[in-house]
Amino acid sequence: MSMLSTLPFLKPVHLRSPRSSPGGQRRHTLPASEFRCLSPEDAVSVFEIEREAFISVSGDCPLHLDEIRHFLNLCPELSLGWFEEGRLVAFIIGSLWDQDRLSQAALTLHKPRGTAVHIHVLAVHRTFRQQGKGSILMWRYLQYLRCLPFARRALLMCEEFLVPFYRKCGFEALGPCEVTVGELAFIEMQHPVRGHAFMRRNSGC
Fold it and tell me: For the N-acetyltransferase domain, which residue ranges apply (predicted)?
């Protein structure tokens, strides 16, 4: 049995009715809304969304194209993409980390025996912003992590203006992160993904 078949949060979710032809018969269309793990073939679409979202704000991207491919080859199961009719509209990319706090090495390394999921980036296509998609995707991602037996918590670093957003998603601030990128400083945040045994027993995980 594949991992995907056991994870209900990644199954396609249809948010609107299939389109009909003028004669009233249904046409074959891609799922209206689908969540799935990303693959290396998605890397270019991921980078295009990320580049537009971050370069205008900070002048740089959390992950460059080769780094995206790197993580999607090593740990695609720690990514999640939101697709609308086959088009990527939002995504999260993560990897495993094996220390209490993030360090500079966490930007490029995947530690297969780690129990902390380092969320490198969450981005939404510009056409779909201000619609709550970032919060929804993060919620689904955290639910998905609860189905992974090795995951104990999620870690991320963000600029201070994003702290309220992640607090609303259930993250708590750990304080200043030791990681810096150029002149940018970050706050490190975490979210536990264990302690939800009742939900796991009843979620199909």
Answer: 33-194
